Amino acid sequence: MSTLDVAAGAFRRDETVGIVLLLAFAGGYIDAYTWIIHGVLANAQTANLIFLWVHAMTGDWAKALHFVPPILAFATGIVIAVWLRRVAGERASAISTLIEILLLIAIGILHNRLPDLAGTLGISVVAAMQAAMFVKVEGAVCSTVMITGNMRQAIENVFAVAAGGAPLGTLRRSGIFFALCGVFGFGAAAGAFATKSIPDLALGLPVVVLLTVLLRCEASRPEDGR
């Protein structure tokens, strides 16, 4: 699809660059928060699985089992997101974002009262729902909760342009994927700083970001007919 299609509003609102970059910031921020507060990763279940087996192979089952709950919670979040897509259709992304906001607010308010495990589970569910709901940017598959696939596509697109014969818009798409990686990293830096500086209020920023995403998606609904 060409850049003209982008200008014509050919993409769903939740696939636009602005929305996806906001979500990437929130994804990096939340991962940094859960690592500092809970010692696990909300988004990167690959890392959690590796840590699980590294500790298990040394016989430290207490540390190994610490990484099981976020993996199970992430799976639960995926199931919720899939069910929402089935029952809510085009409204699923908005409903999912609202649920994420409410969960983060609850965890933020109850930060000092919740068991460590409860906070981990709630944030992993949030991360999973975002990962399952927002999977494209301008029609191209992407991730707002990790950078591995985004980095691969960014580099592949640069190579395609350098090799010649790449379709129109390839370099722009590469820039979008590099931007996703950079914004995710910036979100992680902001999350680490806020969590160490103001741990009781740290979840306020991703709530604001997700609320912005929700309002931008919903504001466009009357115009584009969804």
Question: What structural class is derived from the secondary structure elements?
Answer: mainly alpha
Helix content: over 70%
CATH class, named Mainly Alpha
Computed CA radius of gyration, to the nearest angstrom: 18 Å
The number of E-state strands comes to 2
Strand order of the largest sheet: 1-2
Domain unit count: 1
Unreliable runs = 1-8, 222-226
Main sheet characteristics: 2 strands, antiparallel
In sequence order, what are the helices and strands, one letter per element? Answer: HHHHHHHEEHHHH
* Tertiary shape: globular
Beta-strand residue percentage: under 5%
CATH hierarchy: architecture? Up-down Bundle
Cα-to-Cα separation, first versus last residue: 21 Å
| Overall average residue pLDDT | 87
What can you see in these coordinates?
Helix 2 (17-38) runs antiparallel to helix 10, helix 5 runs antiparallel to helix 6 (92-109) and helix 6 (92-109) runs antiparallel to helix 7. The protein has helices at residues 3-7, 17-38, 45-57, 61-65, 68-88, 92-109, 116-133, 148-163, 170-197, 204-219, 221-224; strands spanning 136-137, 140-141. Strands 1-2 form a two-stranded antiparallel sheet. The longest helix has 28 residues, at 170-197. By secondary structure, the protein is mostly helical. It has 11 helices and 2 strands; from the N terminus they run αααααααββαααα. The chain has a single domain (3-214), classed as Growth Hormone, Chain: A.
